[in-house]
Amino acid sequence: xxxxxxxxxxxxxxxxxxxxxxxxxxxxxxxxxxxxxxxxxxxxxxxxxxxxxxxxxxxxxxxxxxxxxxxxxxxxxxxxxxxxxxxxxxxxxxxxxxxxxxxxxxxxxxxxxxxxxxxxxxxxxxxxxxxxxxxxxxxxxxxxxxxxxxxxxxxxxxxxxxxxxxxxxxxxxxxxxxxxxxxxxxxxxxxxxxxxxxxxxxxxxxxxxxxxxxxxxxxxxxxxxxx
Length: 227
Description:
By secondary structure, this protein is α/β, with parallel strands linked by helices. The protein has helices spanning 5-14, 17-21, 53-58, 72-80, 92-101, 120-126, 146-154, 165-174, 188-192, 210-226, and strands spanning 31-35, 46-50, 66-69, 84-87, 107-113, 131-141, 158-162, 181-185, 201-204. 39% of the residues lie in helices and 22% in strands. The radius of gyration is 19 Å and the shape is elongated.
């Protein structure tokens, strides 16, 4: 598991009991999330844009203000933190398209990490929105743990779920001999960071959400077991 530890443990706990009985998790976070301590930056005429739960966690409290979000988990986190949150798509592209079709009146503030993808604010500005990006956390690359490196080098089949393009790129840099690794990628954008020929297999989830990732892991494991 390459996500930050808490997120990885939550995902593993969400797997079916049958799937959990067939795997032994190895935790090796490849990204460390560090809040930047950004203070309140939104006015009463602003709305937040959240593309990750980390943006919610390290951003200000909502105080009932509007927020437009990517994904159900991010939307739920924003609601919990006091935002009047609406899910506007499962990807950054879908969010932008939805906002263009259903134009909110506020200035849009994308509360994000230092490293972003999708050029959300650039695309929104091109469509006539007032939009601004504020980084509220950093994503600091981490090496593979000794246990993860040993498991890869042992050459036994490994399932590796990858949830972000940056984590994929970091995994590719860190995994020196990944020929026994079966990657399950959250999206095409995540898979594109990998050199597919370096791995035993790369499967892309049918949708960029946790349910689809669980299904893709289960089908990959079933294929391995039948083989």
